[in-house]
Automatic annotation (TrEMBL):
The lineage of its organism: Eukaryota, Metazoa, Ecdysozoa, Arthropoda, Hexapoda. InterPro entries: Acyl-CoA_DS (IPR015876). This is Putative desaturase des12. Belongs to the fatty acid desaturase type 1 family. The keyword Hydrolase does not apply. It comes from Spodoptera litura.
Length: 296
């Protein structure tokens, strides 16, 4: 109800600057989740300079979904047990479960025990991530709450109601659901069992990297895999390319179609697991310099 009132205010009451500020904060927060928490820290799809890491950490704090460390740990757990009963976001139980119901539940003792085996050593060596983890609630109070809510009142004299309900409640609702879609999107854009080319019986779809979500779970380290049903497109991928061109992002990881073809052939010939064959093919591929400047 609070967000509904915020929507009304957004449409009919807020000043133009508040509307633009709402759009900016929402976009920046989601960028922090997609290019930062997800692609950089959860899957190591590229490496970032310290300055870029700090910027993405601040952006991710604007999402208000918990620290990078905690979010990544849950996300890696999700990938480690994808599509099993242990996966808290198991898409086989439907979108409502993976997007909403699971957020209201605590992990079972069995899941908690398995969670402890998730390797977080890389993030524990990351000073930016650990700084945010240590001071998260202070950063949250300042960056997510105080500064955004104060700006419309301080700088362009909007009302307290518009600031609280639009920049506060409505912004949080939009960013929260955008962040949750990172785990539940496969229920929206992925294939369902029994559909044409289901991933458990036919791997041809990865040749063109269509049916994006299933490709992402096979090759999570490809920086081009978008969070919302796209591959090699979208704002997040574009931003990573811009940062790479500026020298702020390096060692962008992706998979050439030739490597996918080789992996499929090896899997068919040797009967080995497809993911194992893909990883082997990727290790042997030679990406051209500045490959990120070319679309697939």
């Amino acid at each position: 109800m609070l967000s509904l009132y915020g929507t009304y205010l957004l449409l009919f009451e807020v000043k133009m600057m508040t509307l633009l500020f709402f759009m900016l904060l929402t976009s920046v927060a989601l960028l922090g989740m997609t290019t930062g928490a997800h692609r950089l820290w959860a899957h190591q799809t590229y490496q970032a300079s310290t300055g870029l890491k700090i910027m993405l950490m601040l952006f991710q704090t604007l999402a208000g979904v918990g620290s990078i460390y905690d979010w990544v740990k849950y996300h890696r757990f999700h990938h480690a047990h994808f599509a099993t009963d242990v996966d808290p976001y198991d898409y086989n139980q439907g979108f409502i479960h993976s997007h909403l119901i699971t957020r209201l539940r605590k992990l079972s003792p069995h899941q908690e025990k398995l969670m402890q085996s998730i390797d977080m050593s890389d993030l524990e060596k990351d000073t930016v991530v650990m700084f945010q983890k240590k001071l998260y609630w202070l950063l949250y109070a300042i960056i997510f709450v105080l500064l955004p809510l104060n700006a419309p009142l301080e700088y362009w004299d909007d009302t307290i109601l518009c600031s609280a309900f639009v920049i506060g409640f409505l912004r949080y609702l939009v960013v929260l659901h955008g962040s949750w879609l990172i785990e539940s999107a496969i229920s929206v854009w992925g294939l369902k069992p029994g559909e044409k080319s289901p991933p458990d019986t036919n791997a041809v779809f990865i040749l063109t990297k269509t049916f994006w979500p299933h490709y992402h779970y096979l090759v999570p380290y490809d920086y081009k895999s978008g969070e919302y049903g796209t591959y090699d497109g979208g704002c997040s991928t574009a931003f990573i390319r811009v940062w790479a061109a500026l020298g702020l992002a390096t060692k962008l990881r992706t998979v050439e179609t030739a490597s996918i073809q080789k992996a499929l052939a090896d899997a068919a010939r040797t009967k080995k697991d497809l993911k194992t064959c893909i990883d082997a093919a990727v290790n042997n591929q030679q990406l051209p310099e500045e490959h990120y400047l070319k679309r697939a």
